[in-house]
């Protein structure tokens, strides 16, 4: 009966990120720098709010788009923190950012529609585009230090292009799209009448002085923008599975049908927990990530690995192409021979790189980078390194 399943589903690969995390877990003593999950506990006030909601018996159906109080709080938070003007009825509380992305792309795409995605990029985008019957059009940003140019976009666009997906700060590079990149996207979106899906789940995990966002810079394009957010990363709530989608009212009212038929709503008793999360300050966590980022950058530089400085998220994406190994072979050998795990760049459309996550204890990060350094030295000693 497998042959009668949806061919788009059958063609979708399983997550290679999880595969390498599994290999690490199955290797005794291996240090895993693979998964992008905060190593901080969920703030106590958030957990308490959920418990109190349970104690009040708030375990029944809620409105499809989320509790009214949470929707109002999100609208106020986005206005105050990011300068975004969305009414509560332009917001859908989703089962993580994943459901938000799924809802947006499934709602926008028709079979054969093309979606431009700057790569390296999170693996989920390509899978959802494929499930929707769309065509994934990658734009390699590595030659421009993970930025976009008008020429890049001009070569990627076609009459079949329907949308472009932006992720900034980016997973896996940690890089932030600059204003010139975003201006190029705006010009393209207007010229070709494109949707712009802004995956902003790492927006609050930013270390630089300027974190421009398409949604903020181009409010006049609100009618074509869908913003995806998550509680997972800034509030260490990955297991709670809550995010939200924001879109212009006519678009949102159509997308909410998909949300309704897919999940009905998010969980009732986490609504108050999310309200509590919006009152939390992620700055101490961000400062810890900043310190770890700086440490990782320094260590990779000492190893002689080239890397574009990440300005957000909690990933770093060094270039391992001088090793002469594919990113997959590099990571497999690193696990087996050095006892440290990373995610190969091919998973994100970034062959020749590996993704290291620094959301782990300082001592674990230091030990993992020591093992990576020893592995690099071993490869250099074998004479396979292209200096």
Structure, explained:
- This protein is an alpha/beta fold.
- It has two domains: 2-41 and 282-380, Aspartate Aminotransferase, domain 1 (Alpha-Beta Complex), CATH 3.90.1150.10; 50-277, Aspartate Aminotransferase, domain 2 (3-Layer(aba) Sandwich).
- 43% of the residues lie in helices and 13% in strands.
- It has helices at 7-11, 16-26, 44-55, 68-82, 96-108, 123-131, 150-156, 179-192, 214-217, 249-263, 271-277, 283-303, 327-338, 362-381; strands at 31-32, 91-94, 114-119, 135-140, 161-167, 195-199, 225-230, 243-247, 315-316, 340-341, 343-344, 354-357.
- The strands form three sheets. The chain has a seven-stranded mixed β-sheet with strand order 2-8-7-6-5-3-4, with helices on both faces. It has a three-stranded antiparallel β-sheet with strand order 9-12-11. It has a two-stranded parallel ribbon with strand order 1-10.
- α4 (68-82) runs parallel beside α11 (271-277) and α12 packs parallel to α14 (362-381).
- The longest helix has 21 residues, at 283-303.
- It is globular and about 60 Å long.
CATH C-level name of the largest domain: Alpha Beta
What's the average pLDDT?
96
Taking pLDDT < 50 over at least 5 consecutive residues as the criterion, the unreliable ranges are: none
What class would the helix/strand composition place it in? alpha/beta
What spatial form do the alpha-carbon principal axes imply? globular
Number of separate helices: 14
What is the strand content? 5-15%
Query: What is the CATH fold-level name of the largest domain?
Result: Aspartate Aminotransferase, domain 2
- What is the rounded Rg? 21 Å
């Amino acid at each position: 009966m497998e042959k009668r399943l949806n061919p788009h589903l059958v063609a979708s690969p399983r997550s290679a990120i999880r595969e390498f995390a599994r290999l690490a877990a199955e290797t005794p003593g291996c240090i895993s720098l693979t998964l992008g999950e905060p190593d901080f506990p969920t703030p106590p006030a958030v957990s308490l709010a959920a418990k109190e909601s349970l104690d009040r018996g708030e375990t029944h159906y809620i409105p499809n788009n989320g509790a009214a109080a949470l929707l109002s709080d999100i609208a106020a938070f986005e206005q105050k923190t990011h300068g975004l003007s969305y009414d509560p009825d332009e917001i859908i509380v989703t089962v993580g950012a994943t459901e938000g992305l799924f809802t947006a792309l499934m709602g926008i795409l028709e079979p054969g529609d093309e979606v431009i995605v700057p790569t390296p990029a999170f693996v989920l985008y390509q899978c959802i585009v494929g499930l929707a019957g769309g065509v994934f059009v990658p734009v390699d940003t590595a030659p421009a230090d993970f930025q976009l140019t008008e020429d890049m976009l001009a070569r990627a666009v076609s009459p079949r292009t329907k949308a472009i997906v932006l992720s900034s700060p980016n997973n896996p590079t940690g890089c932030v799209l600059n204003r010139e990149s975003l201006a190029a996207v705006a010009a393209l979106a207007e010229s070709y009448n494109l949707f712009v899906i802004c995956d902003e789940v790492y927006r609050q995990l930013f270390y630089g002085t300027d974190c421009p966002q398409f949604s903020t810079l181009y409010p006049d394009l609100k009618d074509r923008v869908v913003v995806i957010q998550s509680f997972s990363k800034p509030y260490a709530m990955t297991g709670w599975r809550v995010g939200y989608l924001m879109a212009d009212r006519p678009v949102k009212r159509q997308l909410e049908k998909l949300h309704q038929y897919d999940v009905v709503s998010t969980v009732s008793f986490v609504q108050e927990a999310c309200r509590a999360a919006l009152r939390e300050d992620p700055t101490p966590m961000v400062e810890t990530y900043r310190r770890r980022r700086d440490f990782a950058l320094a260590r990779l530089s000492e190893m002689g690995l080239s890397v574009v400085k990440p300005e957000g998220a909690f990933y770093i994406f060094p270039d391992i192409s001088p090793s002469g190994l594919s990113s997959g072979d590099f990571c497999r050998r690193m696990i087996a021979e050095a006892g440290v795990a990373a995610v190969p760049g091919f998973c994100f459309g970034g062959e020749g790189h590996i993704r290291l996550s620094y959301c782990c204890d300082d001592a674990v990060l230091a030990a993992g980078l020591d093992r990576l350094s020893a592995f690099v030295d071993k490869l250099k000693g074998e004479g396979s390194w292209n200096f």
